[in-house]
Structures are given as structure tokens and as C-alpha cells.
Design goal:
- This protein has one domain.
- Helix 3 packs antiparallel against helix 5 and helix 6 packs parallel to helix 10.
- 71% of the residues lie in helices and 0% in strands.
- It is elongated and about 60 Å long.
- It is built from 10 helices and no strands.
């Protein structure tokens, strides 16, 4: 009890975890959100993988396996950048953010709740995509500890950078309806120019590959290909190697850029609310 006879308010962490549980329940109760979030990357992977078929790459790996490895990046971007961008814009549009800001709840608790939601949905998304890729395309799980460690840090940096960018882009949407278009256009465009939908990436024009190199998706996909594909496939990357040091550098830089954008652009209220 405090001097005033009142119990102290819980800290941001337990409040955030409690809010995260509510966010997860709300998400899975929305059939439309669940189907759209999980189905788009998986359906695209199945359709494109079926189109590519089992045509062998020069290194003895099928085109569908190369696609599946890179599509993990698309799954992460779907559950982070797209979902957070639209979800937070919706919270702002319906006044949820404004009301939360007027309560004693620490602002950090709201974002911890979103982190919990992203963690649960992203793990579920990747597990679904890997299960489908293993069943349909013969993709195999990493065989060494080193590959699992690479998977872990590429996953962590990819989720962090895309989540921060999703939070930042939510402030550019005028309302909840426009948020979907604002997030989907870069989501789909980056999959094409980053070589996720085209195998190998060197089949793309040099200008597109150069453009993609400025964004995180290309490097996430390259990092995951290094985990799930044999080392001989590195020869078909633009630099002829996996460039894992550059993967870490670019994804780390986007984490910093995303954080700066969040801190400088995030709004708790709609523009017309003042």
C-alpha cells in the first residue's frame, strides 16, 4: 500500500502480457484476420511452388524448395509489417489508442501486447509454412546447430525490423480502410523485386536486385535460403555467397531505422482529433 492507502499500479510488463493475451484471443476470434494473415503467404507458396514444379536447379535443388525457403520472409512480413500496420491503424481510427492513452496504463504495455501477438502469430505462420513445404516440396529442416543459430538471428532481426516498420507505417494511414492498401502494396512489390517469387534471384534485372538490396526482405530471404539450402546454392546469389555478415548488417540497420521512425512519427490520435 502507498502512503495514500492505495495499491501501486502494476508495472508495464504484467499489464503488457495481460494485454497480449487479449490481443491473441481477439485475433483468433476474427476468422477473417486469421484466414487472411495465414493463408496469403502459404497459398502463394503452394501455387508458385506447383508452377515451378520439381525442375531441378543446377545444384540439385528443386525450384519449389528455393521458393519455399525464401517465402518464409514473406510469412514474417505478413504477420508483422502488414498485420501491425493495419491493426494499429484500426486502433487509432476507432479511438482505442486515444482511450488507452488517457488511462494510467503505461504506453509500453500497449506495445508489449502487440509484441506478444506478433510472436504468437509469426511462430504459428512459420510452423505452418514449413510443414506445408516439407510435405509438398521436400524441404528439410536445418541439420546443424550453426544453421539453427543462423535461422534464429535472421528470424529475430527480421521480425524486429518488420514490426517496427509496421508500427511506423500505421501512422501514414488516414483511416483503417486505407491501411490495408498502404501495407499490401509494399508487401507484394518487395516480394517480387527481392527474388522471393523468382528463382534464382539472379534471373531478375540488375536494377531490381539493386533496389531490393536497400530493403530487408531481400536479406531475410537470402538468410533463410542459407539455412534451408545446401551451400552450393550460394553460387546463385547475386554476390555468389550467402553474405551473412551483410544480412546481419542490413537487418540491424533497418531495426534502428524502424525504431527512429516509430519514435518520430507514431501518433496516438487521428489527425482530425488534434
Amino acid at each position: 500500500m502507498t502512503a495514500a492507502g492505495l495499491a501501486p499500479l502494476p508495472s508495464a510488463l504484467p499489464l503488457g502480457l495481460a494485454r497480449g493475451a487479449l490481443e491473441v484471443k481477439r485475433f483468433f476470434r476474427s476468422r477473417e484476420a486469421v484466414v487472411f494473415t495465414f493463408s496469403l503467404p502459404t497459398v502463394l507458396m503452394v501455387l508458385l511452388g506447383s508452377v515451378f514444379g520439381d525442375h531441378g536447379e543446377p545444384a540439385g535443388v528443386t525450384s519449389s524448395q528455393v521458393l519455399a525457403a525464401g517465402m518464409i520472409a514473406a510469412g514474417i512480413m505478413s504477420t508483422t509489417f502488414v498485420s501491425l500496420g493495419t491493426d494499429i491503424a484500426g486502433d487509432r481510427d476507432d479511438g482505442t489508442l486515444k482511450r488507452l492513452r488517457g488511462t494510467p496504463m503505461p504506453a509500453a504495455a500497449y506495445f508489449i501486447g502487440k509484441i506478444v501477438l506478433v510472436a504468437v502469430t509469426t511462430v504459428a505462420q512459420i510452423a505452418l509454412m514449413l510443414a506445408v513445404a516439407m510435405a509438398l516440396f521436400g524441404l528439410t529442416l536445418p541439420a546443424t546447430v550453426g544453421d539453427w543459430l543462423t535461422f534464429g538471428w535472421v528470424f529475430a532481426l527480421g521480425v524486429t525490423s518488420c514490426s517496427l516498420l509496421g508500427i511506423a507505417i500505421s501512422s501514414t494511414a488516414r483511416n483503417a480502410r486505407s491501411a490495408n492498401a498502404i501495407t499490401q502494396i509494399p508487401y507484394l512489390a518487395l516480394q517480387f523485386v527481392s527474388g522471393v517469387f523468382v528463382t534464382p534471384i539472379t534471373a531478375l534485372p540488375d536494377g531490381l536486385v539493386t533496389t531490393a538490396s536497400f530493403f530487408p526482405v531481400k536479406w531475410m530471404a537470402q538468410g533463410f535460403r542459407s539455412v534451408f539450402l545446401p551451400d552450393s546454392m550460394a553460387a546463385y546469389e547475386p554476390a555468389g555467397t550467402w553474405e551473412l555478415d551483410r544480412v546481419a548488417l542490413v537487418l540491424g540497420a533497418w531495426c534502428v531505422i524502424g525504431l527512429v521512425l516509430c519514435l518520430t512519427t507514431f501518433r496516438w490520435r487521428r489527425g482530425q482529433d488534434g
